[in-house]
């Protein structure tokens, strides 16, 4: 069991990260929250401070994470405030407008910068620190969409797929340093990111449920987790449909 | 998620659109169809939280605490926070909600908009009495901070304002200190209404919380028999029992109501025969205040056709006669209710223009929806309430005639000036047309 008492959250204002933060605080953790929107971040931190006990430290800073130049400084700040790092959750992301991306490469590039490159920059720096300290957990929210490219969503899928594969390699490397690397693959989650989609039915999960799964996976040092678990079965089927058939389907 | 409905699942209406709020400072997009209506957690029994046109604005995502002063017990939070979330935060720190309805799954916004009451109304008034401030967003973009001491009418219109004055974004509550999460409760059986009145008078003078449950199927000499529960927060003590919360759920909606003459008679008789504890006992606050919340989706037992709640208040002078007449009518027409709840309100005037609580006696009953039979019963009950100068509770209504609303809420025309022109509800259209 990893004890995760000092945690950095990137994209802390995401619905999934916010629920994770609340549950971590209830378990006595100290948090450093990084978010892009200052109003949302203040509301989040004020709320967490009220939920937290006197000895827990809750702090954070505003940053656009596509600005990779800032990453090193942010991690320094967080480590300093928390007095060390036991765990990290990287949660920020955007759901691209696939059609708009098909029409305009600059949009595609932007999406890949947000969903993949900014994450890889953070991972590079965090990996080196945790490798040195010889303990810790790094969890990243990828997606089931990264398991296979589909016509409706392949820019997002490609970015998440890049993150998932990067994490595989990193896990392989950091296993030797007693550092766990956890890839989180949620299915459909009812959050602002999916506000435009029609929701309801058994495939949709609440962010608090996903948050629970994230914390358990971090504590248990899991490698890859599908959340909820049944997406493992769904993706197994989807991954094994032969390409000759897959290309004629409209997924 | 699936279409929002009210707790009694009646009426079944769908708005043109729904919009989920997650940030209190975010404005509601102009291109959403109007009128708007806030929907908290849908714990009302009827259409105050529903609209057939425009956009239902879902507020549960506004669930953050904004400020808490643990020394003075002042809590500011977003309007979609539930009472359960507040209790989970403040009870371990020695504070409690000074006023709570019989469900902790109501949101703060919903509790303000219906100016809800609890078992201690006679001691502390209703929810609005404990609000220090609230923020109201109007559809023209204006933001108003309203406090009880303001005399421009906005606070009085918004407390009990049925969501019509705009969107409440946050509120500041004054909490009440407690020693521990336990209640000291005494229960006593009474064999008829006369006995209830005398027991109740005594209990009200001595206890902060009182409420009675009535077997509404008993007739003749036993008419109005029931159990009176009087409670207070337990004093500090060295040893307290263990409490573990358990919850059950009704997994699916049966095609027909499981509540029928047979199950009602059995339930009411068993409930009446339960052992009472006149010498008192410690009860944890959760089962004491929220017995029904322990069964998730209990509203499903009424089947697909849903059910009605009928809650009226009768002024003190008429209370005894009218209560007897109401119970007689229900028994005569062979209808019955699982939980008939009887309570007297105190004299503290409510702050809201349309607040339901007022001096007198309130009776609340659930009835399965049996179509014309049920509607006929309500017409007879309405006649008694009207004659006695009483009123029905909008938060628990899906059918009252416009005339009964208007006679029960004489300030409704003054209130109209405060309605946000971009807001409306099915309830309001029904009772003002
Ligand atoms: C088991 C049970 C027991 C109950 N016991 C009691 C009781 O003892 N006493 C009592 O008074 N009531 C009682 N009720 C009724 C319940 O407390 C009220 O109906 C309450 O208002 C429900 O809150 P909600 O958040 O679910 O609001 P909803 O039902 O969703 O909405 C209620 C009203 O509030 C408005 N509203 C909601 N949020 C906002 C906002 N942010 N801004 C502006 N308007 C808003 C809506 O437009 C609507 O008019 C009980 C209900 C149940 C299910
Ligand atoms: N919802 C789903 O169905 C689903 C499924 C699988 C995976 N996921 C993944 O889960 C994660 C969390 O998303 P969510 O569902 O919780 O949605 P969300 O609430 O919309 O969260 C996304 C968050 O990412 C932040 N963000 C975006 N770009 C950023 C940037 N450049 N710098 C800093 N922060 C940035 C957003 O900040 P702003 O508030 O400032 O915009 C927002 O807080 C994402 O990685 C998402 O891809 C979601």
Automatic annotation (TrEMBL), chain A:
Keyword Ligase attributed: no
Record flagged with keyword Oxidoreductase: yes
Xref: Gene3D superfamilies: NAD(P)-binding Rossmann-like Domain
InterPro entries in the cross-refs: NAD(P)-bd_dom_sf (IPR036291), SDR_fam (IPR002347)
Keywords from the UniProt entry: Oxidoreductase
Family: Belongs to the short-chain dehydrogenases/reductases (SDR) family.
PANTHER family cross-referenced by the UniProt entry: DEHYDROGENASE/REDUCTASE SDR FAMILY MEMBER 7B, DEHYDROGENASE_REDUCTASE SDR FAMILY MEMBER 7B
NCBIfam families in UniProt: PRK07102.1
UniProt name for this protein: SDR family oxidoreductase
Origin species: Marichromatium bheemlicum
Automatic annotation (TrEMBL), chain B:
Source taxon at top rank: Bacteria
InterPro entries: FAD-bd_PCMH, FAD-bd_PCMH-like_sf, FAD-bd_PCMH_sub2, FAD_lactone_oxidase-like, Oxid_FAD_bind_N
FAD-binding PCMH-type domain: residues covered: 1-178
Pfam families: FAD_binding_4
Protein name (Swiss-Prot/TrEMBL): FAD-binding oxidoreductase
Organism the protein comes from: Marichromatium bheemlicum
Keywords: FAD, Flavoprotein
PROSITE patterns, sorted: FAD_PCMH
